[in-house]
């Protein structure tokens, strides 16, 4: 018969060893996880700009090659719309910046339920033959259950939508999760973001119809009106005065 103290000591030793293994793995894998996250974001930027097919299997090196050859990464100051100076575009992490009180501010009350606004944000310039073809903007906002993080690509007129994709959310598969459905994503191409200078693109309840007859509307996802309302709110927020509005005005000017 083992004594109680032996059993407790043994259990504590097992817990300590397991804890060290788990913590050690988390720390040692952190760099690899960060690199994978970066790679995933690069893939999404390439996809939303039409430089990579949905589901296309390419190596990490090919992703990086396509990205570095075609995409210029900018960091812009949201309030002024100017290119931010003294910020390393290679290491700038917008999500981290939005969480840090030194590099972000409380957002004004908004329908996208964005809590904190980073002072600076990424813009991706997708180029072809040296000319800007698309501008890709990171967007985020609350759906029903989660914050949706994604990218909106505009054509060089800064009005026509080239694509919308989300790379992270926790909406219900089959309902709000249908924001990832390629058929739904295809509906965005060619719609217009702005009407009379104001962000007007929206997801409606029901069917919107073709681009020509409904330039500012996209079909709703059935059973997922709340997620769709979130998508409308987050797009209008990031295209508006507290988001990339000042940058858009500067570039159009
Ligand atoms: C388990 C469960 C998960 C749901 N997930 C979502 C969701 O991810 N997004 C969403 O908008 N609505 C979701 N709903 C439905 C909403 O409560 C709401 O009924 C719906 O958004 C209304 O959309 P409709 O007007 O198109 O029916 C969920 C409902 C249940 C019971």
Architecture overview:
- The protein has one domain.
- It is 35% helix and 23% strand.
- The strands form four sheets. It has a five-stranded antiparallel beta sheet with strand order 1-4-5-6-7.
- Helix 1 packs across helix 2.
- Bound molecules: flavin mononucleotide.
- The site of flavin mononucleotide has 12 residues, from helix 5.
Short description:
By secondary structure, this protein is α+β, with helices and mostly antiparallel strands. The protein has 6 helices and 11 strands. The protein is 35% helix and 23% strand.
Order of strands across the widest beta sheet? 1-4-5-6-7
Q: Based on Cα principal axes, name the global outline.
A: globular
The beta-strand count equals: 11
Indicate the radius of gyration in whole angstroms: 22 Å
- The number of helical runs is 6
- The overall number of domains is 1
**Given the helix and strand composition, which structural class is it?**
alpha+beta
**What distance separates the N and C termini?**
84 Å
Task: Describe the sheet with the most strands.
Answer: 5 strands, antiparallel
pLDDT < 50 stretches: none
- Percent of residues in beta strands? 15-25%
Question: What is the average per-residue confidence, as pLDDT, rounded to a whole number?
Answer: 94
Bound molecules: flavin mononucleotide
Order of helices and strands: HHEHEEEEEEHEEEEHH
Percent of residues in helices comes to 25-40%
